[in-house]
Every structure is written in structure tokens, then in C-alpha cells.
Amino acid sequence: MNIYRLVYKSKPFGYDQAILNGILSDAINYNSKNNITGALICRDDIYLQLLEGPEYEVNLTFEKISNDDRHLEIELLLEEYCNKRIFPGWNMKDDPARTWFWNKEEINSGIFNKIPKIKIIEVFEKIANQIN
Ligand SMILES: Cc1cc2nc3c(=O)[nH]c(=O)nc-3n(C[C@H](O)[C@H](O)[C@H](O)COP(=O)(O)O)c2cc1C
Known about the structure:
The chain is α+β, with helices and mostly antiparallel strands. The chain has 4 helices and 5 strands, in the order βαββαββαα.
């Protein structure tokens, strides 16, 4: 249990390809120096991001992300130790929310407060299985 992982959700503030590219380039650049991997699911109503790596670096990075004005309503959904990374080869994999992802109505109705945390992790595992 030596990998620390954290998932949060937020609302994009200003959402277009240029902003997204800027975020991803920041993420990949810094994460590669901090031994952090993960994925960012993006849709105009939601960011859902998984950060995994050493606890100190993950927390520090989340603190920086929390202060970023490119999104709002940041809410930590889970943090825990685990045995291995879901995205070992990706400093930050970006993924458009797929058809099977929760829809806007579900997100609006507070789906994340109703489901077990493992369901959130399963979403990221599903993405990793599709790319590996
Ligand atoms: C949705 C979102 C996801 C982000 N993901 C990361 C990330 O994974 N790693 C990271 O270092 N910065 C990420 N950032 C950018 C940080 O908020 C910040 O701009 C960047 O780390 C540079 O911070 P600094 O200039 O204070 O060093 C993200 C920002 C947003 C809005």
C-alpha cells in the first residue's frame, strides 16, 4: 500500500480546447517531475481527476489545483492508499466523458454522494483497460 491516490471533482470555468490544452500541458509537465500519474475526465459540466503517487506530492499538487481559477466547486471525493497505479504510463491521461459515464442530470443530482467510492475507481480502471 505505498501508492497514494486522490479523486476530486470540479466544475470547469471557461471550457474550450485552448484552456484544456493549457491545463494538460501544466499537468504533464509538473507531474512528470513529481512522480505523479493519473487521468482527467473532461466534459463542459465536470472535471473528474485521479492523482496517484507519493502522498506528499499528491497532496501538494491537489492544493495547487484547488487554487486554480480555471475551475470551481472543487470537491474531494476520495483519498486512500493502494498497491499499484491505474495509469503507470501516463503523467496525465485526458479522457472525454464517454457515453457510459454519468450524464449531466446524474451529476447534478449529486450522484457521487449516493454511490460507493469503488464505483469511482472503476471508471478510471475502465478507461485504463481501454487504452492499455
Ligand atoms: C482541472 C485541472 C487539473 C489540473 N491538473 C494538474 C495536475 O495533474 N498536476 C499539476 O501539477 N497541475 C495541474 N493543474 C494545474 C495547477 O492548478 C497549476 O496551474 C500548476 O500546477 C502550476 O502551478 P504553479 O504555477 O503554482 O507551480 C490542473 C489544473 C486544473 C484546472
